């Protein structure tokens, strides 16, 4: 956030009903949330102060943002307990529409609902799309000259602003080269992924492979299929070696 410039933050209205819960209690309930892109990768929900059902207790801490101004940090107090430093307001923000809104730390709330469905990790970006397409293109994955997987029945996941991801049937993967990993990641579009590391030629490559065993509804077509991190493997598509993409995971 240190590279923010005043006026660079995008704010949009949303038509979704949004609710947040903490300590088993309803913290806020609104049908007029705002989506605020504090960082370029995904938005945060800012909710009207008038929709808040919990007590917002100033913590004595402030946080300065070059674009949003001075933020006042609050504890969120409900009958079920206190979520410390879980809310932020900008009562004197140079962005006028933020002054009557509050941002709750997403991870500090027990549950978030859009309409009646839970959401995870962060609000979904309305400009991001996930498409999963069946394909007959031949995909081969290798590390250090050793083939890890080869398949002619991939599911290709296209996600806005990210490289294509090739999900392969487990029967087309060399499991003898995979080692279980304790790593888990969560995605608001796909769900929770678990990982394997790869061991070839006496060397271990951590967390190169992941699987969504129970993905979210919009990504059901990748359930139980494995994907290799194309930033760190040799990926051949129809026999042609692909360039390794440049992403935050490169």
Write the layout of secondary structure elements.
Elements: E1 10-13, E2 18-22, E3 25-30, E4 34-37, E5 44-48, E6 55-65, E7 69-78, E8 81-89, E9 101-104, E10 111-114, E11 117-118, E12 130-134, E13 139-143, E14 146-151, E15 155-159, E16 165-168, E17 178-187, E18 191-200, E19 203-211, E20 226-228, E21 234-237, E22 240-241
Antiparallel strand pairs: 1-4, 2-3, 2-10, 4-5, 5-9, 6-7, 7-8, 8-9, 10-11, 12-15, 13-14, 13-21, 15-16, 16-20, 17-18, 18-19, 19-20, 21-22
> Tell me, what's the shape?
elongated
Helicity range? under 10%
Percent in strands? over 45%
Order of helices and strands: EEEEEEEEEEEEEEEEEEEEEE
**Which regions are unreliable across 5 or more consecutive residues at pLDDT < 50?**
1-6
Helix-strand category: mainly beta
Tally of separate helices: 0
| Highest-level CATH class of the largest domain | Mainly Beta
Which quaternary structure do these chains form?
Answer: single chain
CATH topology of the largest domain: Metal Binding Protein, Guanine Nucleotide Exchange Factor, Chain A
